[in-house]
Design a protein that fits this description.
This protein has 520 residues and is of the alpha+beta class. Helix content is 22%, strand content 20%. Helix 1 packs parallel to helix 5, helix 1 runs parallel beside helix 11 and helix 3 crosses helix 11.
């Protein structure tokens, strides 16, 4: 007989973990199913060769794309999900992002709920994930009456100088909001008891010290220690969701674990495996009542897949950059447009300092024309690294699906001009502050076989709305067609904005948790 729970949560990433910890104090029996295990704590956590060049922690899967080419998606199946290797930049969507916004490539649709519906949950999400930041610095930030729970991570000297120079030409750089377990002194250095020690392996690396505020560290582990009513099963791949004869309720969760098949049941089921995995689970759960996939009467499951248009650039300059912890500054002055382009450009933020092994592993022919005699160590020492991020627009044919027994990801760019203009702005502003630079593209940020834009910041595959004909979920993030099935990851996004999506995932998961609490 299948073991029964009050709530089953599929996935332990930011959405599933935040929702679970919110509901754990109810005393209800909660089962979290995670297809991976705990990410090993080992020296390779901080090896650029292992993490970026070898892709040691990426899922060993092969998918195909619209051109029929095979690739390895940059997915990470661990307790904590992709947050184990995220950069922990935790932004709120801008208030205007919830409205219709016109871009060069088309229209970013309005959300059926506005910023006010999420604002209190953003407050709670920032507290839960230890966000360090400073209100009032970011010119495009949405309103909030609550200060950040922790002071901003202080800039090192070279980044402080960059900030001053940018202010000197009329821009408004600000401290990047970071989820980090850092207890800093007045000068920004870590106190002796701080978990984070401000190392160079923060952004994109697993944290060997557990100093990054990821879903495992701030949600899963404390919850399991405090609440015996919560059970986590690792190595538990959910192969399918079954329904009762009416098709209106999930009545079975089929799991493959340790070579055996298991079945669990629950009053309420939440899918939170990430926008790609969530859609794939619903598609492979097709049955007589749901022939095109569970909750897919609209045909929208898997469609409208979005990820940011992103570019990681290494700015090679004349002067040295001895910064260790570089990811502390961002710039949103061009988020909704600029003086020489009428459409939104996006966000510029710092990322981790380039490591020699990463530079050696890049595709280098274009670079060598500029730097034929410069050792890789010198390139790294003279570089400053920026993450450029522009909005991707939803398109029904950008989709994930099963085709010929394989996962198939179709993707075409919807708004390519924005990123080009953002890169132009970066180059000009560095020149204007007296730091002219050669901008070199880094494609190796999340693995050797696929560019960063492949599966990072995934969203939109089960979007929410009021019309069941055009959306998968209602405003509670419950599927229109299945009464006890919710989705609590970035699948629900109607648009993605140009800021990192994780804080919005967490905030919405807390919102959905409150809705489910009433039901439980």
């Amino acid at each position: 007989m299948a073991e029964h729970y009050d709530l089953i949560v599929v996935g332990s990433g930011p959405g599933g973990a935040a929702l679970s910890q919110r509901l754990a104090p109810t005393g209800k029996r909660v089962l979290i199913l995670e297809r991976g295990g705990y990410l090993p704590r080992e020296e390779d956590n901080w090896s650029a060769q292992a993490v970026f060049v070898d892709g040691k922690y990426q899922a060993p899967e092969t998918w195909t794309n619209a051109s029929g080419d095979s690739f390895s998606p940059a997915l990470h199946y661990y307790v904590g999900g992709n947050s184990k290797v995220y950069g922990a930049a935790l932004f709120r969507l801008r208030e205007r992002d919830f409205d219709e916004v016109r871009h060069a490539g088309g229209v970013s649709p309005a959300w059926p709920l506005k910023y006010d519906a999420f604002a209190p949950y953003y407050d709670a999400a920032e507290a839960l994930f230890h966000v360090h930041g400073q209100r009032g610095e970011d010119p495009s930030e949405p309103p909030s009456a609550t200060p950040y729970p922790f002071a901003p991570v202080k800039h090192e000297p070279k980044i402080a100088e960059l900030s001053d120079r940018l202010e000197g030409i009329g821009l408004r750089p600000f401290h990047l909001p970071l989820g980090i377990l850092l207890d800093q002194k007045e000068d920004g250095s870590p106190r002796p008891t701080s978990v984070c020690m401000r190392c160079s392996a923060f952004d994109g690396f697993p944290c060997l010290l557990n100093g990054k505020a990821d879903a495992q560290v701030v949600c899963i582990d404390p919850m399991l220690a405090a609440h015996r009513n919560v059970t986590l099963l690792t190595g538990a791949y959910v192969s399918q969701l079954g329904t009762d004869p009416s098709g209106r309720r999930v009545d079975a969760v089929y799991v493959e674990r340790e070579g055996k098949s298991e079945i669990y049941t629950a009053n309420t089921v939440v899918v939170a495996g990430g926008a790609l995995s969530a859609a794939l689970l619903q598609l492979r759960s097709a049955n007589a009542q749901h022939p095109d996939g569970l909750g897919n009467g609209s045909g929208q499951v898997g469609r409208n897949y979005m990820r940011h248009d992103m570019s990681i650039v290494m700015a090679v300059m004349r002067h040295d950059n001895a910064t260790v912890f570089q990811k502390t500054l961002a710039l949103s002055d061009f988020y909704f447009g600029s003086d020489d382009w009428d459409y939104p450009l996006g966000l510029i933020q710092m990322c981790a300092k380039s490591h020699t092994d990463q530079i050696m592993g890049e595709a280098l022919p274009g670079w060598l024309e500029w730097l034929p005699e410069m050792p890789f160590e010198e390139v790294a020492r003279h570089s400053m690294d920026f993450w450029l991020q522009a909005e991707d627009l939803p398109h029904p044919e950008n989709r994930v699906r099963y085709k010929d027994g394989q996962v198939h990801l179709d993707l075409v760019q919807t708004n390519p001009e924005a990123l080009k203009h953002l890169k132009r702005k970066l180059e000009k502003m560095l020149s204007d502050i007296g730091w002219p630079a050669v901008l070199l593209e880094r494609s190796l940020y999340l693995g050797k076989n696929i560019p960063l834009s492949g599966t990072a910041h995934q969203a939109g595959t089960c979007r929410f709305g009021v019309d069941p004909a055009t959306s998968v979920l209602n405003l509670d993030c419950r599927t229109h067609e299945v009464d006890n099935l919710y989705v609590a990851d970035a699948s629900f996004f109607p648009s993605i904005g140009a800021v990192n999506p994780t804080l919005t995932i967490i905030a919405n998961a807390l919102r959905v948790a409150d809705i489910i609490r009433d039901r439980l």
